[in-house]
């Protein structure tokens, strides 16, 4: 009983701290509460996020603000076609000492940080993109045969431009699966854009202030894993993920006709973590089926692919996910 009370007290304290962080971020990244919530969810889960949006929508500003608010050591890498793996990971150089002796010295690359912004990640070659795979999954990189651990915590926030696809390299499915969530950054509405104009074109701009530090963020990630999840939510996560696998008996005719391949077990793990994070950010002690519905699209979209005929028909994966998730909720409510 005492342990449960302690857990509730810890969760409530974290909720208050997260509310401060959200307020600090939205003062500089105005009117995109959904984007801020998803990005914070990814960091609470210890995962990575890919932000997809047109130029000039504030993706870089968001990552810079997050670095300050969360108290993390951040680096930014502009991905280009000529970027090499060593430009990200680092390399060994031959160094001559004062006594004439020679030895190899490792020069760490920008990946040795706690928050890496991979700007326009799809502009780099597959060879360079693959250099991130080990880092994103295992939080370690291998250079010159030696495993070198990265900072703790370690997060990658990548950006991708949905236009100007000439000269880009689509991210392989294995790398996309390493991103906990896909975050679509849309145009702001008129009122929000007016607020942005007034806030960013004057003599003084709002400054971000630190709320978290690396240790408190790691502690929050551990606390998140202790958050209870009801059986109904667990079953809904399993039902939803399996419903998008064309080979699964539970998938409907529309899914089998539309989806080429569906999400794997990592998608279920991601949903399990992100629904907890959303509950925390909403000030609740446990996730609900509504959290599963809310997080389904950002968690599943990049882990699925349309068939050729579905692409030709102009089908949309996001709309399919929403329809199936809403239908599932209605069925369970009726039962």
Automatic annotation (TrEMBL):
Cited InterPro entries: ATPase_AAA-3 (IPR011703), CbbQ/NirQ/NorQ/GpvN (IPR050764), ChlI/MoxR_AAA_lid (IPR041628), P-loop_NTPase (IPR027417)
Which SUPFAM superfamilies is this protein grouped with?
P-loop containing nucleoside triphosphate hydrolases
GO MF term list = ATP binding; ATP hydrolysis activity
State a single Pfam family of this protein: AAA_lid_2
In which domain of life is the source organism classified? Answer: Bacteria
Listed A to Z, the keywords are: ATP-binding, Nucleotide-binding
Secreted as a keyword of this entry, yes or no, is no
Q: What sequence ranges are listed for the domain ATPase AAA-3?
A: 48-181
Q: Does the keyword Amino-acid biosynthesis apply?
A: no
Q: Any idea where the ChlI/MoxR AAA lid domain is?
A: 253-321
Family per record: Belongs to the MoxR family.
Q: What is this protein called?
A: MoxR-like ATPase
Recorded source organism is Puniceibacterium sediminis
Q: What is the lineage of its organism?
A: Bacteria, Pseudomonadati, Pseudomonadota, Alphaproteobacteria, Rhodobacterales
């Amino acid at each position: 009983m005492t342990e449960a009370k302690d857990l509730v007290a810890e969760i409530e304290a974290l909720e208050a701290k997260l509310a401060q962080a959200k307020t600090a971020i939205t003062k500089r990244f105005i009117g995109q509460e959904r984007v801020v919530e998803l990005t914070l969810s990814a960091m609470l889960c210890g995962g990575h996020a890919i932000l997809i949006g047109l130029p000039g929508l504030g993706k870089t500003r968001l990552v810079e603000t997050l670095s300050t608010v969360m108290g993390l050591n951040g680096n930014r890498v502009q991905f280009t076609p000529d970027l090499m793996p060593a430009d990200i990971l680092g390399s060994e150089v031959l160094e001559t000492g004062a006594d004439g002796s020679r030895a190899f010295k490792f020069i760490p690359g920008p990946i040795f940080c706690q928050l890496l912004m991979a700007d326009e990640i799809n502009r780099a070659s597959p060879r360079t993109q693959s250099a991130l795979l080990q880092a994103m999954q295992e939080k370690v990189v291998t250079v010159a045969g030696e495993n070198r651990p990265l900072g703790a915590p370690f997060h990658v926030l990548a950006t991708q431009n949905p236009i100007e696809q000439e000269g880009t390299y689509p991210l392989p499915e294995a790398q996309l699966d390493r991103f906990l969530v896909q975050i679509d950054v849309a145009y702001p509405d008129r009122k929000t854009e007016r607020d942005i104009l007034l806030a960013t074109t004057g003599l003084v701009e709002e400054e971000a202030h630190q709320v978290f530090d690396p240790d408190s963020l790691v502690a929050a990630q551990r606390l998140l894993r202790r958050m209870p999840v009801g059986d109904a939510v667990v079953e809904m996560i399993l039902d939803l993920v399996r419903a998008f696998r064309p080979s699964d008996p539970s998938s409907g005719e529309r899914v089998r006709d539309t989806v080429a391949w569906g999400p794997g077990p990592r998608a279920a793990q991601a949903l399990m973590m992100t629904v907890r994070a959303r509950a925390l950010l909403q000030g609740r002690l446990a996730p609900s089926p509504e959290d599963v519905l809310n997080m389904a699209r950002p968690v599943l979209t990049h882990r699925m692919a349309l068939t050729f005929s579905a692409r030709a028909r102009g089908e949309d994966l996001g709309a399919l996910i929403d329809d199936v998730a809403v239908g599932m909720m209605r069925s369970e409510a009726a039962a």
